[in-house]
């Protein structure tokens, strides 16, 4: 039994729409209830919000296109001024029913001109008998435009006296939009994030025809088991699924396993998924480079551009400053004399190794240290003599700006600033080499 039902639209279109928007049937059903029939007046403005990759843009495009509803779709990032935005709406509106691209220029200098030209466009294209939908994607950009733009879109139906509905799509909540002087309140709708079950269902639909659906679903289950805790973005997960599927199929292609040997398939793909964890969201290498890396069974660092955060180019003394900061953050203060002085004298083992200090300092995290301790360690690990010049202090400030060091406390402390090293041991090893 289909989940989407509406007497105003053909059952075949609704069934096709349901297959195109998996896991978003309840939101589509609510939108269809608000839209009503084609000739009925809908709600003047609808505000849809949710995190990135929650299906807002895709669902709206698919819904309006599948049901062939007259609509205008504009990205507010591309048309970043009010004039560009209003003119683009009018241009798309003129070619709305026929679908042919409008080439004649449209000049719209003010909101009053837009209202007048909008009425003409609706009358010319015989759209007055059905609702026209204006969808504004990335609608948070409207807050950067003139103060009258957002209130006008919210009550455009009243200003034009036409059957029009404005739909705002955004990643932030409505409370951050509402002007201080007040405005017409839109109908607010929330798109929740996809759950792991939803992601499993959506990603499993893209299975290649040469493999069974169960085989690809098992692969998606493994992929989500690795990446779901660090990545919920559907587009990123789809990219990762397409990128690593060939490696997952290798034992089947070579005849070493069949599609049901999940344990053997998992052992083959596990190290490659761990490599892919280093590049989630970063896009540091192209898909062809990643495929070549998998084919050669190389390490991620062998390709230029991969894990670039471990190959940061720093000035000569900045590298020593960062190493000194790491030593100051993870070594106790009373070990400085033992590590950095040649004639430190004898240290009794019983006093040095206390029972509660047997825990690794790397597990406890970095500790703050004063500036004079950082400079003292720096002077001891650099071979030549280093004068405490303004250049050294400016490089410390640069490391804080790059977020390799963080300042603890306020700048106006009487006992001097305190810092904390924020980089990992692998980063320091790469710098030290």
Structural write-up:
The structure is a single chain. The protein has about 425 residues and is an alpha/beta fold. The protein folds into 3 domains: about 10-190, Rossmann fold (3-Layer(aba) Sandwich), CATH 3.40.50.300; about 195-310, no CATH class; about 315-340 and about 360-430, Orthogonal Bundle (Arc Repressor Mutant, subunit A), CATH 1.10.10. Helices cover about 45% and strands about 10% of the residues. It contains 19 helices and 8 strands. It has helices at about 10-20, 25-35, 55-65, 80-95, 110-125, 150-155, 155-160, 195-205, 215-225, 235-255, 260-275, 285-295, 315-330, 335-340, 350, 360-365, 370-380, 390-400, 425-430, and strands spanning about 45-50, 70-75, 130-135, 165-170, 185-190, 370, 405-410, 420. Strands 2-3-4-1-5 form a 5-stranded parallel beta sheet, sandwiched between helices. Strands 6-8-7 form a 3-stranded antiparallel beta sheet. Helix 4 (about 80-95) packs parallel to helix 5 (about 110-125) and helix 13 packs antiparallel against helix 19 (about 425-430). The chain is flat, with a radius of gyration of 30 Å. Mean pLDDT is about 85; it is low at about 300-310.
- Helicity level: 40-55%
- The spatial strand order of the largest sheet comes to 2-3-4-1-5
Could you tell me the radius of gyration in angstroms?
30 Å
Topology order in helix (H) and strand (E) letters: HHEHEHHEHHEEHHHHHHHHHEHHEEH
CATH fold node name of the largest domain: Rossmann fold
Name of the CATH class of the largest domain: Alpha Beta
Major sheet attributes: 5 strands, parallel
Number of helices: 19
Give start-end ranges of low-pLDDT stretches: 300-310
The CATH architecture of the largest domain:
3-Layer(aba) Sandwich
Content of β-strand: 5-15%
Instruction: Count the beta strands.
Output: 8
């Amino acid at each position: 039994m289909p989940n989407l039902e509406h007497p105003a639209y053909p059952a075949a279109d609704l069934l096709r729409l349901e297959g195109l928007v998996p896991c978003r049937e309840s939101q589509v059903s609510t939108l269809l209830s608000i839209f009503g029939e084609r000739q009925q007046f809908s709600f003047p403005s609808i505000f849809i919000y949710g995190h990135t990759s929650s299906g807002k843009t895709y669902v709206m495009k698919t819904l309006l296109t599948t049901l062939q509803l007259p609509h205008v779709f504009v990205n507010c990032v591309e048309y970043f001024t009010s004039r560009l935005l209003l003119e683009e709406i009018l241009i798309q509106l003129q070619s709305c029913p026929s679908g042919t691209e409008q080439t004649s220029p449209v000049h719209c200098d003010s909101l009053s001109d837009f209202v007048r030209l909008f009425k003409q466009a609706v009358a010319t294209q015989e759209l007055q008998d059905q609702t026209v939908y204006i969808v504004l994607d990335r609608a948070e950009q409207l807050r950067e435009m003139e103060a009258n733009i957002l209130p006008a879109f919210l009550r455009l139906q009243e200003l034009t006296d036409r059957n029009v509905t404005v739909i705002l799509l955004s990643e932030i909540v409505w409370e951050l939009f509402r002007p201080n002087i007040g405005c017409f309140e839109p109908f607010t709708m929330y798109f929740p994030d996809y759950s792991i079950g939803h992601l499993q269902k959506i990603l499993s639909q893209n299975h290649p025809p040469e493999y069974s659906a169960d085989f690809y679903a098992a692969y998606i289950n493994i992929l989500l088991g690795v990446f779901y805790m660090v990545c919920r973005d559907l587009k990123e997960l789809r990219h990762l699924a397409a990128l690593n599927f060939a490696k997952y199929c290798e034992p089947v292609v070579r005849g070493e396993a069949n599609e049901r040997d999940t344990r053997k398939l998992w052992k083959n793909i596990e190290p490659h998924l761990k490599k892919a964890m280093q590049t989630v969201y970063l896009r540091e290498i192209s898909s062809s480079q990643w495929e070549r890396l998998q084919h050669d069974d190389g390490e991620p660092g062998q390709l230029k551009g991969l894990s670039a955060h471990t190959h940061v180019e720093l000035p000569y003394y900045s590298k020593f400053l960062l190493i000194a900061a790491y030593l100051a953050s993870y070594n106790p203060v009373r070990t400085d004399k033992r590590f950095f002085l040649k004639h430190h004298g004898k240290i009794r083992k019983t006093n040095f190794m206390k029972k509660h200090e047997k825990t690794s300092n790397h597990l406890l995290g970095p500790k703050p240290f004063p500036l004079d301790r950082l400079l003292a360690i720096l002077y001891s690990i650099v071979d030549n003599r280093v004068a405490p010049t303004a250049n050294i202090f400016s490089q410390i400030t640069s490391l804080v700006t790059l977020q390799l060091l963080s300042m603890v406390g306020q700048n106006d402390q009487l006992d001097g600033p305190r810092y904390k090293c924020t980089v990992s041991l692998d980063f320091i090893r790469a710098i030290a080499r």
